Predict the structure of DeoR/GlpR family DNA-binding transcription regulator.
Amino acid sequence: MFAAERRQLILEMVRANGAVSLRELARVVQTSEVTVRRDVRALEAEGLLDRRHGGAVLPGGFTRESGFPQKSHLATAEKTAIADLAASLVEEGEAIVVGAGTTTQELARRLARVPGLTVVTNSLLVAQALAHANRVEVVMTGGTLRGSNYALVGSGAEQSLQGLRVSKAFLSGSGLTAERGLSTSNMLSASVDRALVQAAAEVVVLADHTKLGTDTMFQTVPTDLITRLVTDDPPPHDDRAATELQALADQGVQIAVAGASGNPGGEQVPATRRAPLPGPRRGHVALRSGAGLGESAAAERGRVADLRRR
């Protein structure tokens, strides 16, 4: 494929999705990330797109929201790894809330195996993933259906969450920065996400590395309310993502990093750390995929307690 054809395809992908990782671009155009990075720089020089933390976005600073069909094909391996690790944080008999998104949908598919679980959600996709889980109770909010992401929003959704109290909230969004926290491109979605956060004792954010350092219009969760971030291992060239992780850890967010590669059986294989990631800060621990997969959340908390006593 000639450079002009390659760059046109890259531009079309970014226009269709709003934001695309270099890894995904390289896969689609069937070339190396080094070549794609060079193409992205050339397109940025022409003002056609902006480079952003291991990917490319539409020009203008704040990315627009992509629809579900586009999001579902982005960073699929990373979302799978993140969902595997996040599911290990949920215990039998818990009551949790799960927000809308393609990553939370992947999480819901894994939660179907947790007995005695109660899941409160405003996402039709999350509810569908759990519809046939006999040992999981699903509670849906009210509200108005937002077709672009199959989520219930508006005052009906927010009012149905009043007085609710659960152990954990699992949320995703369009962007995450240490300065501003989690954000999204839609005002109605942001408002419901804030109501979900108010109902939970702990907030777990699920965000792949392409969202790190990206800031979008409406804040949903300020950094000081985020208990834990579950993310994937940034590419080796993405120093800015690693810097953002360090800044989040410095503000007290626990960082759990999942490997993005797995074996055919679906069991996650820990990836070798290729970029500097944050170490313990103020008693918090940066977890690898091996620390969450195959082990209970109780064992994980025990390790954290041991480290604090030291």
Observations:
- DSSP finds twelve helices and 15 strands in the chain.
- The first strand starts at residue 19 and ends at 21.
